[in-house]
Design goal:
- By secondary structure, the chain is mainly beta.
- It has one helix spanning about 45-50; strands at about 5-15, 15-25, 75-80, 80-85, 120-125, 130, 150, 155, 165, 175-180, 195, 200-205, 220, 225, 235, 245-250, 265-270, 275, 295, 300.
- It has a two-stranded antiparallel sheet with strand order 1-2.
- It is rod-shaped, with a radius of gyration of 45 Å.
- The N and C termini lie far apart (about 135 Å).
- Residues about 1-65 have low confidence and may be disordered.
Length: about 300
């Protein structure tokens, strides 16, 4: 018997039973022969051309069975039956921004992670495929950025792994730039003991131990610590407060490291002044640590 479509009814014998099935023809011109008579039919010829099929199961092309219902963009006809396209297929026509999920024959309306969205898109937290973000846009992962780089919370122009460089610098977000002066850089210049100098260098902050000016963010290493300034005036020191501030040396204490040392015959008065010790010749009370200049010859002496 010659059919006018690509599907024919055929009688398949399975053991002692026989059922009607749908078989695919390679072309409209093929002969679809049913040489057996299935149960319930009067002849193979009449059964194969009837709309209901000899077995009454509605599987023939005339009844809408087989591939007649393959109309979704993610559908394919396989061995005479409608089946979904493989996961990741674009669909015909395209399901963009989605990809076929391998489960249904219609285009998906939501995504489930990587491999669910068309090129140039990513699966958002709302389970929808959205366009990938451009440089400088906030991001939560590398898959969200066109360039594939999400650094410091922004789509960045490079990996930005060097010391004291970041992609979230105000005014330069999305571009790997120097971290501002005094700011830490997590991962390369951790606080609170260190901070960046604005020129991509990591330096020690005030009060931290040092051996040279170049180690300090302030540029001054005084009395073994990073100091707020050169602190080289007599009777001032930077290692007393614990904070790197230049403060007065306590009363009756020498300051041998000052630019003009206060030592031997002199000592600090606690107010940042270097004064003569008791017993030293003086011209007036203001010369003396005790405030008293007395005698002939005059000498500093305690009350």
């Amino acid at each position: 018997m010659r059919q006018t479509n690509l599907f024919c009814q055929a009688c398949l014998a399975i053991g002692a039973a026989a059922i009607w099935v749908v078989a695919a023809c390679s072309s409209d011109a093929d002969d679809c022969e049913a040489t057996h008579t299935c149960p319930g039919s009067t002849s193979a010829s009449s059964s194969s051309t009837s709309s209901g099929g000899g077995g009454g199961d509605g599987g023939g092309a005339g009844s809408g069975g087989g591939c007649a219902s393959c109309k979704g963009a993610c559908a394919k006809c396989e061995a005479g039956a409608c089946a979904p396209l493989a996961k990741g297929e674009p669909g015909k026509p395209s399901c963009a921004p989605y990809l076929c999920d391998g489960k249904g024959t219609a285009c998906p309306q939501s995504c489930a992670g990587e491999g669910s969205c068309a090129q140039g898109h990513f699966c958002s937290s709302e389970k929808t495929c959205v366009k990938k973000k451009t440089q400088g846009a906030p991001c939560g992962g590398e898959n969200e950025c066109e360039g594939g780089l999400c650094v410091d919370g922004y789509c960045c122009n490079n990996e930005c792994t060097n010391t004291c460089r970041a992609c979230d610098v105000p005014g330069k977000k999305g571009t790997c730039a120097e971290v501002p002066n005094g700011e830490p850089d997590p991962g390369t210049c951790e606080g609170p003991a260190q901070a960046c100098d604005g020129e991509a260098n990591c330096k020690l902050v005030l009060g931290q131990g040092c051996v040279g000016d170049g180690q300090c963010l302030s540029g001054s290493c005084v009395d073994g610590v990073c100091c707020e300034n050169a602190c080289d005036a007599p009777c001032f020191a930077c290692n007393l407060s614990g904070k790197g501030t230049c403060t007065e040396v306590p009363k009756n204490t020498e300051d041998p490291s000052a630019s003009v040392p206060c030592k031997l015959t002199k000592a600090c008065d606690g107010a940042g002044n270097c004064k003569l010790k008791d017993g030293e010749p003086c011209q007036g009370g203001s010369d003396c640590l005790s405030g008293i200049c007395f005698g002939n010859p005059s000498k500093c002496q305690s009350p």
